[in-house]
Amino acid sequence: MNTGVCKIRLHLPGNQSLKSKRRDLKSIISRLKSQFNVSVAEVDDYDLWQMATIGIAYVSNHDQHIDEVISKVMNFIIHNYPEVEIVEHEQEILHGP
Predict the structure, then answer these.
(1) Which helix or strand (DSSP H or E) is residue 18 part of?
(2) Structural contact between residues 38 and 67, judged by C-beta atoms closer than 8 angstroms
(3) Helix (H/G/I), strand (E/B), else coil: 38
(4) I need a surface site. Which of 21, 37, 39, 43 has the fewest CB within 10 A?
(5) Whole-model pTM?
(6) Residue (of 88, 78, 65, 51) closest to 3 by Cα position
């Protein structure tokens, strides 16, 4: 069993409050969960209005499948949220016993 983890830092330029950031982020997170069956949570930048860091995890027996799913997640964000900029991302595959 292998686990793919990805940390994505997002710039959300339209937000003027934490409330609007949370609303936008909640929408992104729920769509990613339902569309790709991944685990997603906000993991950093909690108090910044226009920045958010989300963590994504996906479990599979095949590294290639993990890479495909995470790539699709990235493309989904890019194409469905043009107002959101992906500032940076880190991806890693953890191999289990």
Answers:
(1) helix 18-36
(2) no
(3) coil
(4) 37
(5) 0.89
(6) 65
* Beta bridge partner(s), residue 66: none
The answer to whether 74 and 86 have CB atoms below 8 angstroms apart is yes
Residue type at 58 in one-letter notation = Y
Q: How far apart are CA 41 and CA 7, in angstroms?
A: 10
Q: What domains are there in the chain, each with its CATH number?
A: 2-90 (3.30.70.1120)
Helices 18-36 and 63-80, packing angle to 10 deg: 140
Q: Which pLDDT tens digit goes with each residue over 7-24?
A: 999 999 988 899 999 999
Which class for 41: exposed (0-12), middle (13-18), buried (19 or more C-beta within 10 A)? exposed
**Contact by Cβ (8 Å): 84, 11:** yes
Contact at 8 Å (CB) between 52 and 12? yes
